[in-house]
Queue: 2 jobs
Job 1
Amino acid sequence: MNVPATEANLPGPQTDAGLDAIAPLLARTLPAGATVAVGWNDPLLGAGASRSAAATPAHAAAVDGMLGGEPPGADGYDISAAWTLDATRVALVAQPGRQLPNALREGWLALARSTIDATFSSARAQSRIEGLRKSERLRQALFEIADLSGASLDMQEMLARIHAVVGTLMPADNFYIVRYDDVRETVRFLYFVDERDPWVADPDEEIPVCEMPNSLTVAMLRHGQPMLGPSAQIRSSLGVDKDPAHGPDSADWLGVPMRREGYVSGAIVVQSYDQPRRYTHEDRALLEFVAQHILTALDRKTAQDDLERRVDERTRELQHANWVLEAEIVERERAERLQRALFRISELSITAGSIERFYAEVHGVIDELLDARNFYIALLSEDGARLEFPYSVDERDPVRRPRRLGRGLTEYVIRTGQALLVDRYGMAQLESAGQMRGHGSLAHCWLGVPLTRDGATVGVIAVQSYSADVAFTPADQELLTFVAHHVDGALARKRAQESLKATHAELEFRVEARTRELEQANRELRAQIGERVRAQQRLTHQARHDHLTGLPNRVFLLDRLDSMMLQMYEPGRLPFAVLFLDLDRFKLINDSMGHAAGDAMLIEVGRRIRGAIGVEDVVARLGGDEFAIVLDAVADADVATDISTKILKKLGRSMWVAGRELFPSASIGIALWQPRYRHADELLRDADAAMYRAKARGRDRSERFDEEMRAEAMRLLDLEADLRRAIQRDAFEPHFQPIVRLADGVVVGHEALLRWKHELHGALPPSEFLRVCEDSGLIEQVDWLLYQRVVAWMGRHLEGYVSINVSPRHFHADDFAERLLRIIGDARVDPHRLRIEITEGALLDDAPRAARILNTLRAEGVLALLDDFGTGFSALSYLHRFPIQALKIDQSFIAGLSGETHAESLALVRAILALAGTLGIDTIGEGVETEHQRQLLTGLGCAYGQGYLFGRPVAQVEGRAPKARPAAVSARSR
């Protein structure tokens, strides 16, 4: 793909060329042979110098001396001057070549100053214009990338559009995107366009990095930092050998990693083959910023594709389940009809009066199961030589007379003793083979099943069809055969009833048969009793074991631990250890692959743990992805640690779940039995605490419970108790830090910062207690106490606004806005003087609720500031959706303006300011500590600032507002 040339690819304004020509231009206004040298130091344009053709190093040294603070005229030149204009320091020396009158010399110097000042004003304006153009292109590019991730495009089309977007920001004729899996150690080239490299990338192919030892891209991914320069130079710095298989060398190569949660997950690379130094450090910083938005777009697109795939799979599963269910319903209905038929047949053998009535009733029952409009029953005569038809209903042959045995279909079933299902073609085959000869009307389809008595075939039940619309199936044959067996029994019972009327011997036979039936019933009853005992045993087992893995559950485990704790007081008994195991990131498996895959993984994990411990040890599933292991007879804690390592090693082997290879890991906490333990829950509690330490230290490891952990837990409990007492005493107060207008230093407002007046330790900053406050849910109570004091202070101080920090937890309460407005109204304070500071997480947690709360407050005049902007998601969408009045640029970016990351921080701050200016949002720079930072922010267009340069946070002072402190302070904590 060839990216079209755009404005971003063209050279910028030639401001340096205009500045370099100042000295030659001024020299031409003096007599022939004149020498002029000019030097400057500008915070926006940087340092530089301009000299005429006759200038010497001595002239340059004189200019540098005046820039460094030496007074003009110290070097003896005829004309010398130094001055400062809008933070730009300028120095000038000149030798006219001959003596000039004072008036002419002073006039020329005034002309030189006005020329230099006008040139610098033009250069700075041109630089700002170019910066605004770049910021606008960056903003447009980020909007386009965000829109592409939600568009109905396939992945390759979306990546091609992203390529075009990057091409508007910098030269990108040679461009590719690669994804990196640091667990599987593979890379995928999602998109690859190159002018000279003919290689065609397969976006679905996973390439092991071990197969690319000399790849510059792989080396950069492992290095984890952006790389800029000629490819040969970068290879040398990374220790990578040249390999022609990876394409030709480039004159300028720029690659930046894409990071997710601190881990490198891919990279974006642009390169130029014909133009060295094609890319700048500003391009590198810009591409890093854009890369994170491209990663977000890729993640959203991948999640969308995965969701559509899972929906399709789930739809197919539901369709299949529906088909199975429908089949089950049909089969159940068929079984119910069959059961009713069999019950009816059994009932008929007792209730039907005559044998003819019995046959008619049987016909009616069979007709409910299949099409039996043409139906007859054939029986052998007593001597076996004739075929009789005691019951027959037929459309074409209404009367069936007895006949001698011949070669008909009925006789064929009697001879073979097997059911027969044939159509006309089958009848023709049997007739041609001499197996049968037709009697009566020719049927289209015929089905007959044998009737037996004492194992011998004595008759046939037959149904037939004369129409092609009615054809019998093997299922009908199976059904009729099953019914015939019950008809056999019914006929036997019917004959037994009739025989009972005739002979006393038949009565004795029936008594004997009944006795046998009772014996069978007795055996069945004993079997039922045994089954009930086994069912009780199964219920007991199920109550003490996990239904999914079959492992013991918490009830079983606690009983076992209580028993072992009692045994520990026996002489010579070795202690035991409890291991609490929790799978790492198991929720990701359920969310991405479904609960069925998660269940399969839990079963395999339980099996692996069972295989890693001894026969006397116990592993139990406590619920979810939590397991507990009881190690019997553990000599010391090192033995438990070694077994934990063995378990983690076994778990770490790959497993296949739902067609995907997974590498599970776990965190294990170890608690060794001590005499202080009285209950099993105490051991589990301490093992659980050790497990959380293992998670906090990086996961896939084990940690032992020790007294330090117990002391930390007690400290947190004491701190929470102190917090609750402090809430009751209202021991929290606001400290106020000024927010100033950078242009003139006027204080426009204050931020109210929380401080705890501790009984023993004095005023504590939030860093000492905020985490416990958030975890315990006490932050809301503390905030409301603080808000009461801030609003009361505002009632006494009538100038400027005050901003308060709002925890994301407040946005879960529907009445937050109404309660805050009620406090303001009760104090009779103007709502327009109050601001709330929120973080990006509060907006994205429950966006509709957050928008509703912010709009309610804005309608009453309470505006919202977005705190720490640039450190979180930095998503563009919520800046449109939420009523944000100002962005507070995070202090890490402000600090970077004076450090090694000056170029990156300058580009990011400029982009944030351009974005805010486009959307009509104010900006406040946080953490301003030096005059240099204030001047840079002012030059970039930032209106307001806050930091130690203007004043530290101070407690409320009755009768006057906190004043800004002029001295700069280097401390970082707020």
Job 2
Amino acid sequence: MQVQDIMKFESLKKPVIADNGSLVAVEVAPDRGDSRTLVHSTTGKRQLSVAGASKPVVSADGRYVAMVLEPSLLEKETSDAKARKKLKDGMVLVEVATGKEQRFSRVKEFTFNDAGTVLAVWFEAEEDKKDKADDKAPDNASVAEAKPQTAEDNLKKPKVDKADKGSPLTLIALNSGKQLELQDITAYAFDKKGKSAAVLVNDVAQAKHQLLSVTLSDLSQQQKYSSESEQLGALAINHDGSHIAFSAGVAADKVDERQYRLGLVNDKGDVRFAMHPDAWVLNQYSQLSFSEDGERLYFGTVPEVSKVLSLQKFSDEASLYDTATIRDSRGLKLWHGDDPRIKPHEIKTYDKLKKQTLLAVWHLAGNQVVQLATPEVPEAKPIEYGRFVLGSSSEPYLKEITWAGFYSDFYLIDTLSGERTAVALRQPSNSEPNISPYGRYAAYFREGQVQLLNVASKQLRVLNANLDVPFADEDHDYPSDAPGYGFGPWLADESGLLVYDKYDIWQFAAADAKALKLTSGRDKGISYRVEGLYQDKNQAPATVNTSQSLLVKGYNERTKADGFYRVTLGKDGLKTLHAKEEKLSVLGRAKHADTLVFSRERYDRFPDLYSADVLEVDDARRLTELDAQRSKFGWGKAELVHWTNTDGKPLDGVLIKPAGYEAGKRYPVLVYFYRFMSDRLHAFPSMNINHRPNFAWYANQGYAIFLPDIRFEVGYPGNSSVQALTSGVQKLIEMGIAEPTAVGIQGHSWGGYQTAFAVTQTHIFAAAVTGAPVGNMTSAYSGIRHGTGLARQFQYETGQSRIGESLMQAPLKYVENSPVFYADRIKTPMMIMFGDKDDAVPWEQGVELYLAMRRAGKDVVLLQYEGEPHHLKQYGNKLDYSIRMKEYFDHYLKGAKAPAWLEQGEPYREYAKED
């Protein structure tokens, strides 16, 4: 196996399923190169492969598939920077039954309507004529030769903000082939019944702003609203097309300062505008959406539209000495101790907060507007739980983010009154309460308890109060409260809900907390979870009916294998549907059918796609055949390894034996790890060139790969890792697998830190490669995560680094867990990799580690990749790192000749930059 084989190896993206379950389309993508899209019937043998196509979208009835046509890799790589910017995506529409194609150029978006009868193709705006003229001008054209702009020219061509410009839209009736071409479109929307579409036309130059309704049966159009002075902004249409909502603001105003009003037009053409009781307005970021029944319109508001700030300018001699004008150009960011967010985080969130609007609702029948979200509780989504929506606020805890992590207060907000009912206060932000279908109950997990709140009575009940089974994460090894295992679906009538412990599914009655254990996984070591329910991301979570049979996936922690089972609500016990030594992944379910798509995989079997009825997965149809790619390569085999840690605790790991393994022969071993790795026993290796070693490549080249589990002790993450690593490697030596003098170790980020620390404490490793490691916890503690602007303190006190105390409270723990303080002990050659724009770990941490080892006279190499973030993005850099890593291990573990760069380094050079 060569790196070129990895580049060309094809993998599958997430499949897309027709609403009726008849068809699956999936992008097939090599690691480097052009994708293709595979289209497969779930009921027959019809199959298509469309070269160069990606990101498929399937019509509801499965008759058509539309796909993106990206410029080819060759086009991109052979174009200069200017030409590359002008490369635009196209689109191909395929009729599945005939294979007939229609291709379109310069397409920015395409969408089928919900009924699958019409396709909208939205094109890129035409290039600015000035840009085209510049392209045609000869290189030696002078400024004097250009025709000057006159005042009359400027009047004829008003300057239009890019956000206000429309572009062409074509609607294609799929049954007849008829097309409707529209110009200057800034927004469009389909109703859910397949009857109509709404379209906004904005042509500032012609002072034409129109709302059009298009009847999809014949593509006839009707004007519903027009204005010469108002730019039309947001758009929504209700489920049957009888009402269209839109926003409108004065076109002459700057986009950033424009206020919009909210309008509604019905199928008779009657127009009315909403009146907000608090005079709040809409802005350019306001979005609109109708409730499922069409009786309410949700929209985003702001108390006022902020004015755009501008610097004072020097205008005369006196202004040159005016202190206010001079200071206005200062480059200052003021950090105050009481700021809710530290400045880098404030800057990183500025754009998001600028675009944030606060949810309001317009009750159409009563013509009542109710503000739901407020600056105090700014987060709310238009997902309804009866008459309520769920709101949240992290505002009280913003300052604490720096050291304590993320918390929010959660509320149910009454859409009729705006009244808020507290559901859970100071709840971890990622532990959103589980709301019952009509908002009567809210379930959440806290401090080991599954709590259920009756919203109306405020009665709080602990569902697991009388059970002796833990519902908190039993493997939690962080200095924070253990979270729960999550919730399954609610019963549709709100009479109960499903809750998970580590192994089992429990059905709790909402009224009296009566518990029924539906599965018996604890004794078998199998964790069961409900799978295969259709979930629309814009709607409340799926519910189930009393006595309904459900698909359950079980993960066996002892064999690391998955199985599919059937369980029936209200009854304990389950039926095995499919259980083999493999990993199963549910990838999707059809919206209006029981068709399920899933993959089956092992380390030595590609995760091809299968389709089946959701409760008949044992009778699945195989859809793809990509496993054939492995046939020409020696691949190796994966097996489970058990051993006892130095503290007496049992640990698991995965051993991948090399291709052509011979019993009794010892091999070089590459150790790769992070935290829990043994669940990858049946996982097919990721066939990519990136910041990790490619397992299949190393196994093919005669390496054994070891993936050990790490279990941490709070306050001592470094030593916890060392104990697990050394005892695991010793197990491989005792098994006769590992050559004791040829064991290498590689990790990235948290794994990179553990790698760097491990070699300060043990000499069992012959070579180490560490990517983006923290070298010094004392300096990293008060560093910044540049990607988010967050301080790193919370990561050490409550998060992944697991110290559990502040630097001031436990300085010695920070020293004891920092590799730089033990650099003089290192005997293992080390290669450090960092991108110098790392957005998670300050890359100076790598410099500290490098300088400490250099000062101590140790064998060290630092790879600095320019402009790269935490994970390498540029393919040339990923390939370079992968090759150097392999050369590094080949030298130290297999005795290969050292490459020149390792023997003597590389001098700094400057390269010509592309214009």
